[in-house]
Design goal:
10 strands, 170 residues, 2 domains
């Protein structure tokens, strides 16, 4: 993956004689910015997605990746740890490889034991599954579209936060 001077984020992969290249035009490179660059793929379904999210500006760019290559855990480990197989720029603050797609955008920072109002009463976050109903600000129930968790380092943007009453309408 590389960032070109015009702001294009380019994903380039090679497996044996096969080559894959996808480009995503962004405004990166026009000053210091925090960017979350995500590449997700479903090799058996032969589809993928390259995304760039600028959390400080609320900008998101995405493009589909056609026929992505499968990536073995061995290859993933080499990308992340072996300087002879790939190089991670000194400007990269955090890099990770997950075994399932992660949601884009701001990540929630609440404990799994935090209670959320539902039509049947409060329920702990760690007990929710996709499709469960939660009450939104106006009191109406809406279904949960995605329920999951991510284990991240407790540094920088991932540092835990504590919410205390009466802030944030608690």
């Amino acid at each position: 993956m590389c960032l070109e001077p015009d702001g294009t984020v380019r994903l380039m992969m090679r497996q044996g004689a096969r080559h894959l290249q996808t480009a995503l035009q962004t405004t990166l490179g026009s000053g210091v910015q925090t960017a979350h660059i995500t590449y997700t793929w479903d090799a058996p379904a032969r589809r993928g997605r390259l995304s760039v999210h600028l959390p400080d500006h609320g900008l998101l760019w995405q493009t589909n990746v056609t026929t992505p290559f499968p990536l073995s855990m061995r290859d993933a480990q080499l990308i992340m740890t072996d300087p002879n197989s790939s190089r991670i720029d000194a400007g990269v603050v955090f890099a990770a490889i997950a075994n399932a797609p992660c949601p884009l955008g701001p990540l929630p920072g609440l404990s799994g034991s935090a209670a959320v109002d539902t039509p049947t009463g409060p329920k702990a976050l760690h007990d929710f599954v996709s499709g469960d109903l939660v009450n939104v600000a106006d009191g109406h129930p809406v279904p949960i579209l995605w329920a999951g968790h991510a284990t991240l380092p407790t540094l920088g943007r991932f540092a835990p936060m504590t919410l205390r009453r009466p802030y944030m309408q608690l």
